[in-house]
Amino acid sequence: MQVALSKVFGPLKDHPTQTTPRDDETGEEALGVIDMHYTPRDEVAKGEGLVEMNGAIIARFSPWHFDHCYNDELNYAGVLRAPINAPVGGRTGFMDGVELYRQFPPALRDRLEARNVIYTLDTRLSTMKYGVNFTALTEYATTPQLLKEASTFPRAMHPAIWTRETGEKVMHFGPWMAVGLEHQEDQEGDRLLDDAAHEINRLGEGTSAYWHDWTPTDMIIWDNHRMLHAVEGCDAQYERQTLRTTIKGDYGHGYFEDGKKIGEVQREIA
Prior knowledge:
Elements: H1 2-6, E1 34-38, H2 40-46, E2 50-53, E3 56-59, E4 62-65, E5 77-84, E6 92-96, H3 97-103, H4 106-112, E7 116-119, E8 135-136, H5 143-150, E9 156-159, E10 161-163, E11 169-171, E12 178-181, H6 187-204, E13 209-212, E14 219-223, E15 227-231, E16 234-235, E17 240-247, E18 255-256, H7 262-269
């Protein structure tokens, strides 16, 4: 059902990484629906993927980001269900980049105009550089494999602000997986991105974000070219599962640092 409904919005795109777990039930026609499943009895015992925030230990936390930022091509949209939810927490937050641009402090926003942000496939929260408001406790068991795969990806560049064909400007900086400012990888560039990331966190805690409380029958689709999203995490004692379908379609502003295309990278990985 999720795959069939997703195809109404466009062709599906396989996930660019091999280490991301796929859903086994959908078959090849689904092009890799990804299965993000946290099982407490396994992962709490190992202490995997947990962070401490505001005095609580939480699982499945994801800072603000846009999908496939580490790739030269984005995906057009994501389609998400959460068949297994924690009784408290686990909400997914969304922020519209057009409204975020309007609400951003003008002096800070102007410093990000015409600037590209550098992203990598390194998803470790323990090495996140900007807007950090948590303590990463441990990594996932798949982290060594992910880092090996990440080493084959060139760094990807995406604009912090871009303009839609209809004229609206979109604030599109995702602090997670960002590693620097293109042509200014120094302390000043890092301070600019850190200030911007903390402002995104602040706005995300207020009225700028929509936070969705999941029920098993919900399904959400969002424009990945325009939206940032995050997951607040949930108490580590509870199981949580989300299934995401990916809709193909690029916005045309990203590129790899060395000029390669994703097809070349994927062939090298294979």
